[in-house]
Amino acid sequence: MAKGSSRQGSGTGKTSSADKSLPSSKSAPAAKSASKSVPATKAAKSSSATKAASKAVPKSRGRKPPPVVLAKPKPWGWIAAAVAVVVFAVAAIGYAVIQANEKAALTDPDNIEGLQTKSFVASQHIDQQIDYEESPPFGGEHDLEWADCMGTVYPIQIRNENAVHSLEHGAVWITYDPELPPDQVDTLAGLVQGAPFTMMSPYPGLSSPISLQAWGNQLFVDSADDPRIEQFVTALRQ
What we know:
alpha/beta
C-alpha cells in the first residue's frame, strides 16, 4: 500500500513537471501581439509620409484661373476728361479772341463812321481870343489855362481857347444845341459825370444837335442815343 502510494505520488509529480514545461495559453496571444506590432509601426510611418506629401502639394482652394486678357483696356475716363479740357480751352481762347476783336474795334477811330480828322500843331499857347476855322474847334492855338475836364458837366457855354487846351491833354469835349430835349441832355450827362478827361457844355449855333471833339477829331450826330458817341469817347479819350 505504501509503495503504491509513492508511485502514484511520483507519477503525479512528473505530471506536474510536464505541465510546467508546456507553454501556457496566455503566452500565445502575447506572441500574436508581438507579431502584429511590427506591421503597425510600418503603417504609422506610411501614414506620416502620406500626410507630409499631402502638405507639400499646394491646394488650389477652389480659385478660378485668371481670365486671359487679349488687349489692354483703354482709359476712356482719362480720354474723355482730356477731350473736355481741350474743348474748354478752345472755347475760352475763342471767346478771348472775340472780346479782343470787339475791344479793338471800339478803340480804333478808323471804325467810326462820319469821323472828321485834321492835324494840328500842339503847344501853341496865346493870351488872346482866337478866331477858329472849325466850330466847335478841335485843335490849334489855345489858352495857357485849360478847362476842367474831370467828368465836368457845364451848364453854360465855356471859352473855346480853354476847351481846346483840354483837348490837347487827351480830353473829349461833348457839345450840344441848347434846344436839345432835356432827356437827351441827361443821357449825355450820364456819359460824362465822374469820367476823367471828359466834359460837356451847351454850344449855340451848332450845325447838328450834338458834336464831339477830341484833339484832331470831330463827329456830328443827331441823337444822344447814337452808338457812335460811346465809340468816339472810348477810342479817343485818354
